[in-house]
Write a structure and sequence with these properties.
The structure holds 2 protein chains of 2 kinds. By secondary structure, chain A is α/β, with parallel strands linked by helices. Chain A has 8 helices and 13 strands. Chain B is built from 9 helices and 18 strands. The chains are: A alpha/beta, B alpha/beta. Chains A and B meet through helix 3, helix 4, strand 7, strand 8 and strand 9 of A and helix 3, helix 4, strand 7, strand 9 and strand 10 of B. Bound molecules: flavin-adenine dinucleotide and adenosine monophosphate (AMP).
């Protein structure tokens, strides 16, 4: 099984407090810790497990600036065989469709049986996988939380639906799947793993290499454009309890008693 | 303004989802005088059509035995055949909408906006949309070029249901135009969620932990507090993904819907998928070390603290009472 996994480098929300910068043009990028998008890490783990079971190879691809090389390398340290970086100034400002069309060009440079994305990334769009599948005219399933091999023509996939229920489908290969967290337990990547791939060449493809017109992607090709970041005026929000820990604990216990939170 | 606005109606057992009337409000926010039609797709859908027909100008139905289960691959094919190219289609941003809509926008060659929470109106062909990023930590304005139509996923619960039922339209049967729906993905069955050792949906008081608990060994801290309070421990999704607690303890759209009196959110950021499982307007106490965490926007009472320090203090104080 030849598998391609799309991975994105994103600010790690578990490690950072994400805030709007002073003029609302961006989030505050100073001192941000970046990592691979949480969902994509599950997708790479799943791909590696499939490869270990049935053979084949795993390639990871990312659209981003030079720094995205670091997440491609990390996923190679996890066990992916190849990495590709799609990077060009012309790609900046791409909307979901722009990113999907770049990934499509990368898919068409290879020959893959299975293409995986994460269910969603940092901007919570959950769009690139479905767009990529439609562009490639391949069957698609989103929010996949189980994959079973049937034969080399088709696989069985479980989709997570509301309430924790699971929708089982049979899907023809090649296909595109977006992977939901919890499908597996992504392996730990140690310093030794990282060292092993430290000097591997990761090819970088620009607009010319991919054969995409520069004005069809990036800001020029985007129909959907972010204007600014802001903090909305919401209702009052929570009443913050202040004081020493003892004072706060005391106030909280009073409130809990009043609201039926203590038996 | 561009073409017509359509709303995709989700339903279960013949009953329309809450989003069915929320999308009426969403459409009016795009253009107050817009003509808004509903799409009802499935097998034996007349009851659903009748339910929503008073709220929409027209209800377009596709009724087919092949759609007894809403397979997004098949429905996408049908919609491409019936929808006008330059329309705006609103779809709930739920597990079905995520499955259907992005690919549909590509096939219709229209723009796509995911998870819209509000609209700031239409100027010419530019629709200004409000979205959130990073699990609700920041909000953005997004411009969408709708000149060639748009598919827009709308967050469930972000618009109030429009109960006016003043549109009083007609049902139009489009089944004959759906065309060939053969798809590379075939529905097999639905596997029901596993039942766990406790039923958090029946509890009045929940001590709910999120990624802020940091380590499996720290779950004890929450157990101790719950015991002292006479409460039960629930959690956000990452705790279940890490296999630290059973799936039946997860609160949220892909977990359980709970209706407690008191909800202690400990180290939970407050994503909409988590809050989507919290109903009945409980008294929410949020404890989080980040004062800007989105959970503080919806909580009644907030405490800026490290839960690993704070929860044991609270447990001790309650035990001493
Ligand atoms: C289709 C879909 C369905 C989903 N369904 C669900 C669902 O049903 N339920 C659900 O919960 N999620 C669901 N999610 C995931 C959801 O989007 C969020 O990723 C998740 O809710 C985040 O969980 P969290 O708040 O625990 O973690 P995070 O967002 O990482 O937040 C952790 C919080 O803890 C705080 N913190 C860290 N350390 C400490 C400390 N020591 N003391 C105090 N505070 C601390 C941080 O400031 C942060 O605010 C779903 C996602 C998708 C795509
Ligand atoms: N810049 C990118 N490079 C590679 N893959 C991406 C990129 N952006 C999004 N994806 C893939 O698409 C998935 C969904 O992202 P999104 O549609 O942006 O929420 C991610 O989990 C990735 O697998």
């Amino acid at each position: 099984m030849e598998i391609l996994v799309c991975v994105k480098r994103v600010p790690d929300t578990a490690e950072n407090e994400i805030e709007v910068n002073s003029d609302g043009t961006d989030i505050e990028r100073d001192d941000l810790v970046y990592s691979v998008n949480e969902w994509d890490n599950y997708a790479v783990e799943e791909a590696i497990q499939i490869k270990d079971n049935v053979g084949g190879s795993v390639t990871v691809v990312s659209v981003g600036d030079e720094e995205s090389e670091e997440v491609v390398r990390r996923e190679m340290a996890m066990g992916a065989d190849n990495g590709i970086l799609l990077s060009d100034d012309a790609f900046e400002g791409s909307d979901g469709k722009g990113v999907a069309s770049l990934l499509k060009a990368a898919v068409e440079k290879g020959k893959y049986d299975l293409i995986l994305t994460g269910a969603q990334a940092d901007d919570g769009a959950a769009q690139v996988g479905g767009m990529l599948a439609a562009m490639l005219d391949l069957p698609y399933a989103s929010l996949v939380n189980k994959i079973e091999m049937i034969d080399d023509q088709k696989i069985k996939v479980g989709r997570e639906i509301e309430g924790g229920n699971q929708e089982m489908n049979e899907i023809d290969l090649p296909c595109v799947l977006s992977i939901q967290t919890g499908i597996n337990e992504p392996r730990y990547v140690g310093i030794r793993g990282i060292r092993k791939v430290a000097s591997v060449e990761i090819p970088v493809h620009g607009a010319g290499d991919l054969g995409v017109a520069a004005d069809s992607v990036g800001d020029a090709g985007a129909k959907v454009k972010r204007l600014d970041y802001f903090m909305p005026e919401l209702g009052e929000g929570a009443e913050m309890l202040e004081g020493s820990t003892e004072e706060i604990v005391e106030k909280l216990i009073e409130l809990l008693k009043a609201k039926g939170g203590l038996k | 303004m561009a073409g017509q606005i359509f709303a995709y109606i989700r339903f279960k057992d013949g009953v329309p989802d809450d989003s069915a009337l929320e999308l009426v409000a969403a459409a009016k926010k795009i253009a107050a005088d817009a003509s808004v039609s509903a799409l009802v797709v499935g097998s034996g859908v007349d009851a659903v059509c009748n339910e929503v027909v008073s709220s929409y100008q027209e209800v377009w139905k596709i009724d087919s035995d092949a759609l007894a289960y809403p397979n997004a691959e098949m429905i996408r094919k049908a919609l491409i055949n019936i929808l006008p190219k330059d329309c705006i289609l609103l779809v709930p941003h739920d597990t079905f909408g995520m499955d259907l809509a992005p690919g549909l926008s590509i096939k219709m060659d229209s723009a796509f906006v995911a998870d819209a929470v509000d609209f700031e109106g239409l100027e010419g062909d530019t629709l200004k949309v409000i979205r959130q990023e990073y699990g609700g930590a920041v909000t953005t304005h997004v411009n969408c070029d709708i000149s060639a139509g748009a598919v827009i996923n709308v967050r469930p619960g972000s618009f109030p249901a429009d109960e006016s039922k003043a549109a009083g339209g007609a049902v139009v049967d489009k089944s004959g135009e759906a065309g060939d729906m053969a798809a590379g993905r075939r529905y097999l069955e639905t596997v029901a969620a596993e039942v766990g050792d406790v039923d958090i949906t029946k509890e009045d008081v929940l001590v709910s932990i999120g990624r802020g608990i940091e380590d499996e060994d720290n779950i004890e801290i929450a157990d101790d507090l719950a015991e002292a309070m006479g409460a039960v421990v629930s959690c956000s999704r990452p705790i279940v993904d890490a296999k630290w607690l059973e799936k039946s303890r997860q609160v949220g759209t892909s977990g359980q819907t709970v209706k407690p009196k008191v909800y202690l959110a400990c180290g939970i950021s407050g994503s909409f998928q988590h809050l989507g499982g919290l109903k009945g307007n409980p008294f929410v106490v949020a404890i989080n070390k980040n004062p800007k965490a989105p959970i503080f926007q919806i909580a009644d009472v907030g405490i800026e603290a490290d839960i690993l320090d704070f929860l044991p203090e609270l447990t001790d104080a309650i035990s001493e009472q």
